[in-house]
Task: inverse folding
């Protein structure tokens, strides 16, 4: 019978990259706009910088995720290739190894040997991938998926503060962008916590905290720069 239960762990491949991208897009773009607004930069320059930050950030996230997850995938594939060769070269040793794993998990030796024998006959590489290497199909590295999720989510996160920068007068821009971005970050953190099965309050609090730190720091830089100008 096919396994039909729903597990949150199945989302981990794309959820981590998407949430990281959205957080980064919102925090970095909002912080950039707040810093430039505090420094009283011209509206046109501010918008160009924010738009350039969106494009550069999205591509940077995509490239970073692709390279990082590709490295993880390379490691996983190398381990699988080594395991495949060992199964071909010394299947008896691999059977003993699998048996010992099951015994270590509390299965009696006789039953562990029987299970290992049947698993080796059915899908030897799959059994060793799961039980020896800890690799599961739902959590295997997928570089392209991670890159696309990161780029799109970064852009989505960067859009709200960019739109506000187009609509809100310069004198109010820093306050409006900071407050609305903190609310969006709290919402995003809460949703992330809910999707991951954790507390929504904790998820909202930790994301909003670091967003406030980032925007506060760039506002300070903008104030110092603006005072010098």
Result:
């Amino acid at each position: 019978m096919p396994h039909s239960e729903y597990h949150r762990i199945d989302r981990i491949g794309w959820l981590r990259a998407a949430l990281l991208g959205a957080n980064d897009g919102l925090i970095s773009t909002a912080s950039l706009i707040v810093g430039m607004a505090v420094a009283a930069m011209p509206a046109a320059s501010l918008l160009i910088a924010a738009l350039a930050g969106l494009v550069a950030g999205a591509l940077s996230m995509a490239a970073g995720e692709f390279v990082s997850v590709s490295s993880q995938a390379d490691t996983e594939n190398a381990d699988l290739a080594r395991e495949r060769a060992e199964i071909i070269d010394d299947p008896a040793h691999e059977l003993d190894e699998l048996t010992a794993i099951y015994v270590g998990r509390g299965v009696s030796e006789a039953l562990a040997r029987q299970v290992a024998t049947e698993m080796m006959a059915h899908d030897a590489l799959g059994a060793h991938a799961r039980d020896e290497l800890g690799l599961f199909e739902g959590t295997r590295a997928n570089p392209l998926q991670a890159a696309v999720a990161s780029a799109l989510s970064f852009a989505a996160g960067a859009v709200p503060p960019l739109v506000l920068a187009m609509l809100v007068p310069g004198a109010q821009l820093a306050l409006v962008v900071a407050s609305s971005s903190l609310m969006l970050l709290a919402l995003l953190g809460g949703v992330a916590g809910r999707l991951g099965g954790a507390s929504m309050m904790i998820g909202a609090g930790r994301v909003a905290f670091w967003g406030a730190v980032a925007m506060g720091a760039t506002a300070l830089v903008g104030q110092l720069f603006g005072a010098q100008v």
The helical segments are 12-38, 43-89, 91-104, 109-131, 143-167, 170-195, 200-228. The first helix runs from residue 12 to 38. Confidence is low (pLDDT under 50) at residues 1-9. DSSP finds seven helices and no strands in the chain.
